[in-house]
Amino acid sequence: MGHLVRHVLPFALLLAALALPARAEPPTVFAAASLTDAMEAVGRAYQEETGEAVRFSFASSSTLARQVEAGAPADIIISANEQWMDYLQEREMIDPTTRMSPISNGLVLVAPRDGGVDEVDITAETDLAALLGTNGRLAVGDPDHVPAGIYAKQSLEALGFWGALEQRLARADDVRAALTLVSRGEASLGIVYATDAQVDGGVKVVGHFPTDSHDPITYPFAVVADAPSGSAARLFDFLTGEEALAIYERHGFRRN
Q: Does the annotation place 188 within a ligand binding site?
């Protein structure tokens, strides 16, 4: 009899475990690299309020959009430009009724903090090539696909600098990688978002690009079509709500 009980009890425990509801996976947010610090702070606030953790994946918007297109299990995606969200919407990879762009950013020129470049007023008369020096490189997100690099190229073209600087670019996989190149002194100058310059003590802002020299730097948010997490809608409301907007502002983003 004792032998039988020893076998029955584990089987009964197994049945009980199978009867319990499966533990829900935390919702996953794919967000542009420039949002890393702000979004992690928002995630902590969300967990404090709801008790629910959030998973984040940060990369360039182009990388994230292609991952979503390939079926990566994301619930929400936040791009650093409208074009990559358009890309997903055209392919019916997001719920278009949720799409909104609540925050925006600016574009700045950064140099190593201990470097010799002083602050400049960036206009069509500014000699950026001279600021780079003879062998200096200009770090940017790759203009072929990274939003920060696309905005940078737009500005350089609008101001008439592109022809002189195109061959001197240090192309990075995302804007944070471009920032790191400058912080480490591996690039003489870099073009990054204003918010990025705030998070790295190794750089200093030496110029601001005119807002009319590039497209508005807006961040579209959307729920991914058929989001796997049942709590995606609740999280999305939080990410675009008043408490989150205040956190974005503290990290240097502007409300739209």
A: no
